[in-house]
């Protein structure tokens, strides 16, 4: 479902989102898709703009419909698993994109606008969380991830060291300018703690984030900190943190 002017080109403030494949994000079905932080944030800006435009309109503007239609190509629908992000968030993102596309098929303009607003907001939240988690992904230097977590959490070093399962002295060595790189297992734990802290900071203060790790979680059935010893549990932990943010979004 596309909307074009008579010259065959897309126009309007959201048109850039439709040209990401050929200009800004170098996206294609074969090998390229939006994966970098600048590309994700560029798409998020356009989704935010579309959300505001939809709020002001009584029906679905053509530019918003164009943006929805562009999701399949922009996100690389042929290879969705290539998007390196929390599986919980990518699943939510794709489900929301599907619901948005389905909403466009409504014959009733009011139903179309209502369902699209809900789906687009869900898409926006998932995309926002994916974009904000990029600095914590595997390709980000782990010591930068650690430094960012220290700054965000703003608690005594002993508190963070306990979350990471190391001594304060070890944490200080990692944080030193010429300090050593954390081992593989330590690096994985640093990244997941960083991602959880990044999600929860929107809902809690620094001490509140720490308390979340130590309280028994109703869905996890145990204290989140206990899951940090098993990398196989990291997806569950991230899902719980993301859900906590969604409840207060």
What characteristics describe this protein?
disordered N terminus, mainly alpha, elongated, 249 residues
Description:
By secondary structure, the chain is an all-alpha fold. The chain folds into two domains: 15-136, no CATH class; 142-248, no CATH class. Helix content is 61%, strand content 0%. It has helices at 15-18, 37-56, 62-74, 87-103, 109-133, 142-153, 157-164, 168-175, 184-200, 206-214, 224-227, 234-248. The model is unreliable at 1-33 (pLDDT under 50).
Residues in helices, as a percent range: 55-70%
Distance between the termini: 31 Å
Share of residues in strands: under 5%
- Please give the largest β-sheet: none
Mean pLDDT score, rounded?
Answer: 79
Using the CA coordinates, give the radius of gyration.
20 Å
Shape: elongated
Number of strands: 0
SS summary, helix count: 12
Structural class: mainly alpha
| Total domains | 2
What series of H and E elements makes up the topology? HHHHHHHHHHHH
Low-confidence stretches: 1-33
Write the layout of secondary structure elements.
Layout: H1 15-18, H2 37-56, H3 62-74, H4 87-103, H5 109-133, H6 142-153, H7 157-164, H8 168-175, H9 184-200, H10 206-214, H11 224-227, H12 234-248
Helix pairs in contact: 2-5, 4-5, 6-9, 7-8, 9-12
Explain briefly what this protein structure is.
This protein has 249 residues and is mostly helical. The protein is built from twelve helices and no strands.
């Amino acid at each position: 479902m596309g909307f074009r002017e008579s010259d065959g080109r897309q126009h309007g403030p959201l048109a850039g989102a439709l040209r990401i494949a050929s200009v800004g994000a170098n996206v294609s079905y074969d090998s390229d898709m939006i994966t970098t932080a600048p590309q994700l944030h560029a798409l998020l800006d356009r989704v935010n703009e579309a959300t505001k435009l939809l709020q002001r309109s009584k029906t679905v503007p053509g530019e918003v419909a164009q943006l929805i239609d562009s999701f399949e190509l922009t996100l690389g629908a042929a290879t969705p698993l290539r998007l390196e992000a929390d599986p919980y968030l990518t699943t939510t993102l794709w489900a929301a994109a599907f619901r948005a596309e389905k909403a466009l098929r409504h014959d009733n303009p009011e139903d179309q606008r209502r369902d699209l607003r809900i789906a687009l907001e869900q898409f926006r939240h998932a995309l926002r969380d994916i974009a904000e988690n990029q600095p914590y992904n595997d390709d980000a230097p782990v010591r930068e991830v650690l430094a960012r977590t220290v700054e965000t959490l703003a608690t005594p070093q002993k508190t963070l060291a306990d979350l990471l399962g190391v001594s304060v002295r070890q944490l200080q060595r990692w944080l030193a300018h010429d300090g050593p790189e954390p081992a593989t297992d330590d690096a994985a734990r640093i990244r997941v703690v960083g991602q959880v802290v990044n999600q929860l900071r929107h809902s809690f203060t620094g001490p509140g984030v720490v308390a979340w790790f130590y309280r028994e979680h109703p869905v996890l059935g145990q204290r989140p900190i206990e899951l940090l010893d098993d990398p196989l549990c990291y997806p569950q932990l991230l899902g719980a943190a993301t859900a906590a943010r969604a409840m207060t979004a």
